[in-house]
Amino acid sequence: MTEADLVDLVLAEQERPAWTAAQFAEELYHPAGWQLVFCQGEPGRLVGYICCRSVAGEGEILKIAVVVQCRGQGIGSLLLQTALSRMAAEGTGRCYLEVRDSNSIARNLYEKFGFRQIGLRKGYYNSPREDAVVYKVNIPRAGQGKESRFPQPGAFGI
What we know:
- This protein has four helices and six strands.
- Mean pLDDT is 82; it is low at 151-158.
- The chain has helices at residues 6-13, 21-28, 75-89, 104-112; strands at 33-40, 45-55, 58-66, 94-100, 116-125, 130-138.
- The protein is of the alpha+beta class.
């Protein structure tokens, strides 16, 4: 992700509780942060992204989103799969994320990738007030024979 992507990111964020351009820029330059974007069409309009951090063998997915008109095409799965592959390649042993309790589509996606609920943060989200479900997945290290679950980064042209 680059500064040039910030406008598209902020536009995509208008569909959900939003991060501001300043928050995206802060994440863009965070020393432990990294992002993947999915572009489609001409001239390569950003339609999905994932923001992650990896520190001391632990990963965190801070945000993943696909614009409404492009959902249901597997873009979220590709982003998540590629992010987990990158974490595996870097030796990250586990990954955490949180999601609104009511977001059943996202929760089903995470569970498909092996994430399991490990906690609940009561009243964590605002507008509307809602609990956050905390998830964790253990990431197999390269050479443990489980790599097929998380294909290598770049396998989908992301």
